[in-house]
């Protein structure tokens, strides 16, 4: 009782008197009426420990905090507003906010955070608004938000997310608004948004989604507004949008060339649809949304002839306001869609609509195989036994038993799919008039030879698929005439040598697939440096490589190198001396029994992911990983014969370590590793192989280490006395809970890809043609 009244007196005093100077930290200004402490732009490296306990608003903008450690706000339990914008924060340790059960608004925007850990936001049980925009987040670990049951708004815009795994937003039981704009998202797992039953608005604009993520979106039962602008989608198929409550859908600035009239048939409440700034030339009346009031077609090249008439008619009858203007024909150009009457929308007699709108084109005359009946999406000019779609600019003759490359595709064709035919041989100039072609598919065509100049004139070709053929070698001029080629697939052929001279004609090559060929040696020094200076990914898995010459792999651009499943007997250190930017190296499935000291030294500045599984490795030098430091994120040595393993404590950036299926000898010599395992926050499985009585048991779970003589390991005493170490042990207990997150790693792709991947146009085309 006594104590209680003393506290009240103190509180009353503090509230009624101006805050004493000593109560307000030196770098800060304090306002006792609003209980605000502001320490803005003071280059502080720590949260001032003397901030008064009763502070409710704490403004720490523009400082230099870098790491928010556990319990960083322990002394200010009454905070409701916390602003940590632009504080140079790189990492939030688990438990940093654990004492802040009253905070309603937390601003962490404009920092440098890369990963959201499972318990980064633990304790923020009243939080309503969380801003994490303008960081560098590339990974969200499952469970990161489980404690935020009251959160309303979550801003994750302007980060580096590529993929959203299943269930990451689990626990956000009251979320209304989720903002994921301006990331690099190209993939959303089907259950990415599972559990968000209250979400009403979702922003996914400015990402790299190539398809509408139908399955994922269908889970969002309450969403009414969806922003998807600025994603590179080319087509929306039937039932793409299946969202029962959706009213506003924004799909502007995409690359839509076409959409099914039933694309929105499962969005019955849709009232506003924004399709502005796409590549639509026609649109059919949309079936499904009965409440539609506004359809925005601004900035599309709408061609106002008879094929737009049904849409115009439908808009008039159903009261849909059409926004946008005609792009042609000349007498209607720039005429607002809303102003043209159905009678104005005519086709010239005797001309098919496509001829009508493409009359300026001079194309070689080839008799159409399908007679042009009066449908807008009709194929007009197309070789026999093929299908051409002039709207999507796709042509396919896939699996039709062709033995020669057909001729006479529309000059504007961008994607040509010829896979599964029997060409055997590609003569020179096989593709006349294909200057617009971007993607050429020649997989599984039994091709054993490509004559020099076969691709002549393909000056826009970016993607070439030659996988699953019978190529034994390549003519040095095989790729002449396709200088922009960027992605080349040659996997599953019979190439016996690295086709260096053929590839040297491809200065723009970035990704090269040569898996499952019969290449046994990379002999020539300067093999890669003679190619263009852009090659970034090289896949040589499953060849017969036994030897790699020094200098063969020299390249400033190479970032991913897969040498797995070959016959290398040692780590090719000598060949990696001049690959300063190599980030990912896969050596799994070779027969490297011993890894010597400094094996990866040349890669010490760059290497992030190293795979050495199933190599029959019996020994690894304790200095094998010397030089590698905080850059290394992933290390796998699964399924080897290792009994010992070197100390990993210098690899402070490790996130994934896989030591499984090694017969580790569980005696005192393993103690440093075991200690390290206890010390770090990552999921790690290692089992004992020796001695027999411990076989199969987890290294973490056994007790033999207790009897190890301490004097063998001098650091033991130090760590027992060092409070820091104790603390991180507590951390490690916590981190054991992080289950399976290592498998939910985000696949990081180069942020800016020069061109979209080839997948979607192909699917687009299929959907269209099968329609
Ligand atoms: C901020 O502090 C860091 C070290 O704590 C120092 O290197 C830097 O120069 C300081 N910046 C300013 C603007 O004072
Ligand atoms: C239609 O789209 C254009 C271009 O994106 C935009 O400026 C305009 O505001 C939109 N109109 C409506 C009514 O949404
Ligand atoms: C790869 O090498 C092995 C032995 O060196 C040989 O038996 C096999 O035929 C080779 N494979 C190919 C595809 O050349
Ligand atoms: C590395 O190579 C192995 C063996 O070929 C393969 O199973 C694994 O998927 C590869 N890992 C990566 C990340 O490429
Ligand atoms: C455990 O972690 C602490 C602090 O990060 C470090 O100083 C110590 O060397 C580590 N101990 C081991 C055995 O890795």
TrEMBL record:
<keyword id="KW-0395">Inflammatory response</keyword>
<keyword id="KW-0675">Receptor</keyword>
<comment type="similarity">
    <text>Belongs to the Toll-like receptor family.</text>
</comment>
<dbReference type="GO" id="GO:0006954">
    <property type="term" value="P:inflammatory response"/>
</dbReference>
<dbReference type="Pfam" id="PF01463">
    <property type="entry name" value="LRRCT"/>
</dbReference>
<keyword id="KW-0325">Glycoprotein</keyword>
<feature type="domain" description="LRRNT">
    <location>
        <begin position="381"/>
        <end position="415"/>
    </location>
</feature>
<keyword id="KW-0399">Innate immunity</keyword>
<feature type="domain" description="LRRNT">
    <location>
        <begin position="23"/>
        <end position="57"/>
    </location>
</feature>
<feature type="region of interest" description="Disordered">
    <location>
        <begin position="332"/>
        <end position="373"/>
    </location>
</feature>
<keyword id="KW-1015">Disulfide bond</keyword>
<keyword id="KW-0964">Secreted</keyword>
<feature type="region of interest" description="Disordered">
    <location>
        <begin position="716"/>
        <end position="771"/>
    </location>
</feature>
<keyword id="KW-0433">Leucine-rich repeat</keyword>
<dbReference type="GO" id="GO:0004888">
    <property type="term" value="F:transmembrane signaling receptor activity"/>
</dbReference>
<dbReference type="InterPro" id="IPR000372">
    <property type="entry name" value="LRRNT"/>
</dbReference>
<feature type="domain" description="LRRCT">
    <location>
        <begin position="300"/>
        <end position="348"/>
    </location>
</feature>
<dbReference type="GO" id="GO:0002224">
    <property type="term" value="P:toll-like receptor signaling pathway"/>
</dbReference>
<feature type="compositionally biased region" description="Basic and acidic residues">
    <location>
        <begin position="716"/>
        <end position="734"/>
    </location>
</feature>
<dbReference type="GO" id="GO:0005886">
    <property type="term" value="C:plasma membrane"/>
</dbReference>
<keyword id="KW-0732">Signal</keyword>
<dbReference type="Pfam" id="PF00560">
    <property type="entry name" value="LRR_1"/>
</dbReference>
<keyword id="KW-0677">Repeat</keyword>
<comment type="function">
    <text>Potential negative modulator of chondrocyte differentiation. Inhibits collagen fibrillogenesis in vitro. May influence chondrocyte's differentiation by acting on its cellular collagenous microenvironment.</text>
</comment>
<dbReference type="InterPro" id="IPR000483">
    <property type="entry name" value="Cys-rich_flank_reg_C"/>
</dbReference>
<feature type="domain" description="LRRCT">
    <location>
        <begin position="662"/>
        <end position="709"/>
    </location>
</feature>
<comment type="similarity">
    <text>Belongs to the small leucine-rich proteoglycan (SLRP) family. SLRP class IV subfamily.</text>
</comment>
<keyword id="KW-0391">Immunity</keyword>
<keyword id="KW-0272">Extracellular matrix</keyword>
<dbReference type="InterPro" id="IPR050541">
    <property type="entry name" value="LRR_TM_domain-containing"/>
</dbReference>
<protein>
    <recommendedName>
        <fullName>Chondroadherin-like protein</fullName>
    </recommendedName>
</protein>
<dbReference type="Pfam" id="PF13855">
    <property type="entry name" value="LRR_8"/>
</dbReference>
<feature type="signal peptide">
    <location>
        <begin position="1"/>
        <end position="21"/>
    </location>
</feature>
<dbReference type="GO" id="GO:0045087">
    <property type="term" value="P:innate immune response"/>
</dbReference>
<dbReference type="InterPro" id="IPR003591">
    <property type="entry name" value="Leu-rich_rpt_typical-subtyp"/>
</dbReference>
<comment type="subunit">
    <text>Associates with collagen and binds to collagen fibrils.</text>
</comment>
<dbReference type="InterPro" id="IPR032675">
    <property type="entry name" value="LRR_dom_sf"/>
</dbReference>
<dbReference type="InterPro" id="IPR001611">
    <property type="entry name" value="Leu-rich_rpt"/>
</dbReference>
<dbReference type="InterPro" id="IPR017241">
    <property type="entry name" value="Toll-like_receptor"/>
</dbReference>
């Amino acid at each position: 009782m006594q104590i209680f009244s003393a506290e009240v007196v103190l509180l009353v005093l503090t509230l009624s008197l101006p805050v004493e100077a000593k109560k307000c930290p030196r770098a800060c200004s304090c306002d006792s009426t609003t209980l605000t402490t502001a320490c803005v732009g003071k280059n502080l490296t720590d949260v001032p420990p003397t901030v008064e306990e009763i502070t409710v608003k704490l403004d720490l903008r523009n400082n230099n905090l870098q790491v928010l450690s556990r319990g960083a706000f322990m002394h200010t339990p009454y905070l409701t507003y916390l602003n940590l914008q632009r504080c140079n924060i790189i990492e939030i340790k688990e438990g940093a906010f654990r004492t802040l059960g009253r905070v309603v608004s937390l601003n962490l925007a404009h920092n440098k955070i890369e990963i959201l850990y499972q318990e980064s936001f633990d304790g923020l049980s009243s939080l309503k608004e969380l801003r994490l925009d303008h960081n560098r987040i590339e990974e969200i670990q499952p469970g990161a938000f489980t404690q935020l049951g009251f959160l309303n708004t979550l801003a994750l815009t302007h980060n580096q997310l590529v993929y959203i795994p299943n269930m990451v937003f689990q626990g956000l039981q009251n979320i209304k608004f989720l903002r994921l704009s301006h990331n690099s998202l190209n993939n959303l797992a089907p259950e990415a948004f599972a559990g968000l039953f209250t979400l009403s608005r979702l922003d996914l604009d400015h990402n790299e989604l190539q398809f509408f993520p139908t399955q994922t979106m269908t889970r969002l039962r309450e969403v009414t507004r969806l922003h998807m602008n600025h994603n590179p989608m080319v087509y929306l198929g039937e039932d793409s949008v299946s969202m029962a409550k959706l009213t506003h859908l924004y799909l502007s600035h995409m690359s839509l060339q076409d959409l099914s009239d039933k694309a929105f048939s499962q969005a019955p409440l849709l009232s506003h649809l924004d399709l502005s700034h796409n590549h639509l030339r026609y649109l059919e009346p949309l079936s499904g949304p009965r409440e539609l009031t506004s359809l925005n077609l601004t900035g599309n090249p709408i061609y106002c002839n008879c094929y737009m008439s049904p849409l115009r008619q439908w808009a008039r009858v159903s009261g849909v306001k059409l926004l946008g203007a005609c792009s042609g024909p000349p007498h209607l150009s720039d005429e607002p869609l809303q102003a043209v009457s159905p009678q104005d929308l005519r086709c010239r007699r005797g001309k098919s609509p496509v001829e009508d709108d493409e009359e300026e084109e001079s194309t070689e005359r080839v008799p159409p195989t399908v007679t042009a009946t009066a449908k807008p999406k009709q194929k007009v000019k197309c070789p026999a036994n093929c299908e051409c779609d002039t709207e999507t600019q796709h042509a396919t003759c896939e699996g039709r038993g062709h033995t020669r490359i057909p001729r006479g595709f529309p000059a504007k064709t961008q994607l040509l799919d010829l896979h599964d035919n029997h060409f055997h041989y590609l003569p020179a100039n096989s593709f006349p008039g294909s200057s617009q072609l971007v993607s050429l598919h020649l997989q599984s065509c039994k091709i054993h030879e490509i004559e020099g100049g076969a691709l002549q004139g393909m000056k826009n070709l970016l993607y070439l698929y030659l996988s699953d053929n019978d190529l034994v070698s390549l003519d040095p001029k095989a790729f002449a005439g396709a200088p922009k080629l960027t992605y080349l697939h040659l996997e599953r052929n019979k190439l016996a040598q690295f086709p260096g001279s053929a590839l040297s004609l491809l200065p723009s090559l970035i990704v090269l697939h040569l898996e499952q060929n019969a290449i046994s040696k990379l002999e020539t020094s300067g093999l890669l440096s003679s190619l263009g200076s852009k090659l970034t990914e090289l896949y040589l898995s499953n060849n017969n490589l036994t030897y790699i010459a020094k200098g063969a792999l020299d390249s400033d651009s190479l970032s991913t190198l897969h040498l797995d499943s070959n016959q290398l007997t040692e780590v090719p250190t000598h060949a990696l001396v001049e690959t300063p930017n190599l980030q990912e190296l896969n050596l799994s499935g070779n027969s490297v029994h011993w890894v010597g000291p400094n094996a990866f030294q040349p890669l010490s500045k760059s290497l992030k992911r190293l795979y050495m599984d199933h190599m029959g490795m019996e020994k690894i030098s304790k200095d094998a990983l010397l030089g590698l430091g905080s850059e290394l994120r992933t290390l796998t040595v699964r399924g080897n014969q290792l009994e010992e393993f070197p100390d990993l404590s210098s690899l402070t950036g490790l996130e994934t370590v896989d030591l499984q299926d090694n017969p580790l000898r569980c005696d005192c010599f393993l103690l440093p590793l075991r200690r390290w395992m206890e010390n770090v926050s990552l999921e790690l499985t290692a089992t004992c192989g020796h001695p027999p009585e411990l076989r199969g048991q987890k290294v973490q779970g056994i007790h033999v280490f207790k009897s190890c003589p301490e004097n063998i390991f001098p650091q033991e005493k130090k760590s027992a006395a060092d409070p820091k170490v104790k603390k991180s042990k507590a951390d490690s207990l916590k981190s054991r809970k992080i289950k399976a997150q290592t498998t939910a790693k985000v696949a990081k792709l180069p942020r800016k890809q020069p061109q979209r991947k080839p997948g979607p146009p192909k699917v687009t085309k299929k959907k269209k043609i099968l329609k």
